[in-house]
User: Fold these one by one.
Assistant:
Number 1:
Amino acid sequence: MTSRRSALARLGAVAGTLGLSGCARVLGSASDGVDTGLPPNPHADSLPARQYVQGPYLPTDAAGNDLQPRYRRVLLLRLDVDPSVEAARTVERAMRTVEAAFDWRGDGLFHLLAWGTDYFERIGELGRAPISKPRVVSRTDDPALLSFDAVLVLESDVPSHLSAVENAMFGAATTLQGQPVDHPLGDVLSVAERRTGFLGEGLPAKHADVEGIPAGALSADDPTFMGFFSDRQGTQASEDRVAIDGGRFDGGTTLHVAHLTQDLDTWWEGLDDAGRVARMFSPEFDPAEIADFGANVPFTDAVREHAREFDVVGHHEKVAQVRREGEPLLLRRDFNTTDGGHAGVHFLSLQRTLDHFRRTRRAMNGWYVRDDSEAITDRENNGILNFVDVQSRANFYVPPRDERAFPLL
Ligand code: HEM
């Protein structure tokens, strides 16, 4: 029987003979991406080589924190054709069309195309891929463990840009920003599921008429449904920190996508400011101190002592325990959602390895404090765990821009 791999290798040889292979890259090569035979990306010089890099292009607040784009769309994709050089060419052309249409900035568009566990399984390479299928990592949840071929993440301060791209790539539109779309992603991929959401002052209050949020709970300037800003610079891994460093996947990273629903009646009506601050950050803080945090959140690394003294521990102090040399392991790109008519968070995080995500999640579970306080259970008085339920998880590999079409093929 001919293996898929050798069949693809033959296809590569044919592509080469037909003059499609303009450089030394060989289909199936262990050291590089698939050769699409296309000329070099004309936008490459004005775009970061790593698809997920946004930092240098984002505005900052007065404290120096990056202000992430306010609107998000996550298109979870299914491959409709067999992986091939031709399909890779279509994908690369489609992504170049998107790049030509918008500047790489908040009021333009950030996008990344990542590849999921279904894709790597399909090409027989899941064992070699830098990702694995998602697992259950908490005792409080029974999430759907999802697997997709790919995901397209779109982020912008201009909500219509997200719709324009989705329509041009997967819908009826034949142009994008006035330019023809000759090779839409929809020729090879289709949308299996979509997630939408938003982040930033004003937006949660505008979308608060959903299950999970008591009426009138949010004030106009709350940046998230739980009321706190959540992306201070010092609480984020740097874009370098999450990059895979060296080897076949150099410059790529891993992406975890989880959907959490939130039930915030007790959060807003059963707790006061001190109760919310204790659970989100740490019981050692006075609520008035939060506004002074600036570009970092202080923590004393005393979770077990706090459990004994206060019978409650904070989300931030728990997850901050896994920092390495003072730096968190995760670069969080999570946002609020009302998908399904219920308040929630799409928790997207980038990390060098998925183990960094699991390690951080174990720290968040807080099982280690149960001996220190009977009041702390898997959910109660244990950070924000009493207010969130994980509905689903999925994992992806984010290749560098020049290898974004069919990695490992
Ligand atoms: C509804 C869900 C969640 C909310 C509302 C939330 C909120 C927050 C907030 C407000 C902070 C403080 C950051 C700051 O002030 O800049 C924080 C930090 C953090 N969260 Fe979450 N979070 C959620 C879920 C998660 C999950 C699922 C994880 C991963 C397992 C996670 C990992 C982290 C990490 C790593 C930090 C930074 C820790 C550090 O500074 O070292 N969070 N979160």
Number 2:
Amino acid sequence: MAALTRLVEVAPNVYVARSRLYATATTVLLDGHGGALVIDPSWEPDELAAIPADLAALGVTCAAGLATHMHYDHVLWHPDLGYVPRWATPGTVRATVEHREQVLAPLVGEMPDDLIAIAAHLTPIAGTELEWRGPKAIVHEHDAHAMHHLALEIPDWGLLVAGDMMSDLELPMPDVDDVDLVRYRTGLDSLQDVVRRTRLLVPGHGTDAHDPMARWDADRRYLDDVVEKGRTDDPRATDPEMAELHTANLARAGRTPRG
Ligand SMILES: [Zn+2]
């Protein structure tokens, strides 16, 4: 078997590749019947091309894709992954059709035109379970990081593919029109019971968590700090890349930055 270039097996049937850009996760789930579900493939052209090559090395083919949310770095694709359904929540599909240009604008000039052309062609998920050949896969939709965002739970595997929530690198990053953090907190809270029964959490950016509740607690504590105290000792907030976001979160909470 050819060596895998990017995918790393993190649990049985679960493979993750991390992009050199923002440690963005590509998550691959094997359905046990020779098929693979490819979630949020990312990011740079050579990294995207390595995913189908790695699937071939594993002896599986891409059966379907999944986009956790509408942001440009989560709706990418590669022609060698094939013309298979690429699922997303109905609201995400609607947004990427109605606002396609706006969604993909950050890619223009950064990615080859052919990869932009095949990005964000999504199919709505019917109901709250994926119709794939693997074990039961539950879609948990919320509006925290983005409207119509989903987290995918595979209960038999104790797995949660979280999208852009519960990262060890990035602070909670609300949708632009979340003006008071209430929507973010509501979305995070809606995942609490799911995270509690999860054993492995794969965030959209950062590293995988084997103690998922610690990630949930960190995000909740940060939001509480911002709203109630106007300050936090969350280590993520000391990252210069997070300064602007932290200041914006304080403003959302009606706070001005303090020490
Ligand atoms: Zn995002």
